Amino acid sequence: MNFGVIWCRCQEMPKSSDVIDRARAGDEQAFAALTDPLRRELQLHCYRMLGSLHDAEDLLQETLIAAWRGLPDFQRRSSLRSWLYTIATNRCLNAIRDAGRRPAAAEVPAVRGNARAENHAEVSWLEPYPDALIDAVADAAPGPEARYETKEAVALAFISGLQHLGARQRAVLVLRDVLGFRADEVAEMLGSSPASVNSALQRARSSLEARDLGSGRAERISAAAAQSELVARFAAAFEADDIDAVVALLTEDAVVSMPPEPEWHTGREAVGRFLLQRHLRRQEPWRFAPARANGQPAFAYYLRRDGGWRRAGMFVIAARADGIASITRFHDFARMDLFGAPAQL
After folding, report:
1. CA atoms within a 13 Å half-sphere pointing along the CA-CB vector of 84
2. Which one has a higher pLDDT value, 211 or 281?
3. How far is it, in rounded angstroms, from Cα 210 to Cα 207?
4. Does a cis peptide bond (omega within 30 degrees of 0) precede residue 128?
5. For residue 331, what are the β-bridge partners?
6. How many C-beta neighbours within 10 Å does residue 26 have?
7. Range of lowest pLDDT (186-190, 322-326, 331-335)
8. Are strands 308-320 and 296-305 parallel, antiparallel or unpaired?
9. Pairing of the two strands 250-257 and 323-331
């Protein structure tokens, strides 16, 4: 069966038994009618679980193939949406548990109190996610149990933080606090008990709180109004290689990371030294073009090559009321076409 992506901005509507029966009998068009409205949110779910756009695309296809093959066994005790989330979640859990898939997320050792050490990769496989694939999902309100808004739950810091949770805790937190499924629904999805789900949820919440990802949310959201001007000034200074101006716009605890490179710099002074070193090493101009990723400001950057400006990577920016809080660079990212960045200027 061809599972080519057919995007739809509509939410899932009640499906007649006739459509399900036709799909169970092998009607591909009926199956597409059932699953197309849910593709984007299922892919975003896989991205939250795995932290990689590439892996999320693969797991979405695995989910749809498994659903196609398993549809005759769908008993309709739950909604089709819940059933598909069950398949997607368990496929992601299998991927996470695959010991050969990738190394565990590295814990960044603490130095100078709560400051983080430099030159230490956090989540090497982290990839950005295009806002164009989030827009339709944001239109669908999460369940009443949800604690996070869609914009918060796609931010790079949040996605990175999820990768530090155990597989089961990660699944429980996403299903409960992001998507708003009830504890009994999640228990059925994971073949567990509501008590076990609630226990895993509390541990997951505590872990995110310890990483400052479950607190201070109001401050980050309130900074949105002033974000555009701040980010524009930052991008102009960065593009002009005015390192002093860039550093002046950073928060005291600003962080620079560059997955998959083992680079992690924190603190205004350390970031300033690092950016100056990189500038001296590059010794060529660059140009920025606005983009959007993970609900955050982003810029595709272009280097002068072969007589033209060639696309080379992307910066994803996080801003607070007191300045630029993080810069995450993705160099030669393979799927930049999804972010609306042309191959050359």
Report:
1. 25
2. 281
3. 5
4. no
5. 313
6. 12
7. 331-335
8. antiparallel
9. parallel
- Helix/strand/coil for 119: coil
Of the candidates 72, 67, 70, the residue with the CA atom closest to the CA atom of residue 21: 72
CB-based contacts of 291, cutoff 8 Å, min separation 6: 298, 299, 300, 314, 339, 340, 341
Residue 103, sorted as left (phi over 0), alpha (psi -120 to 50) or beta, turns out to be: beta
DSSP per-residue codes, 127-148: ---BGGGTHHHHTSPPPTT--S
Residue type, 112: R
Kindly state the tokens that stand for 204.
Answer: 């997951």
Q: What is the pLDDT of residues 24-37, one digit of tens each?
A: 888 899 999 999 99
Q: Report pLDDT digits (tens) over 121-163.
A: 467 889 999 999 998 786 566 777 788 888 889 999 999 999 9
160 contacts: CB under 8 Å, gap ≥ 6: 51, 105, 122, 123, 126
- Give the DSSP per-residue string, 231-256: HHHHHHHHHTT-HHHHHHTEEEEEEE
Can you read off the two tokens belonging to residue 178?
């992001």
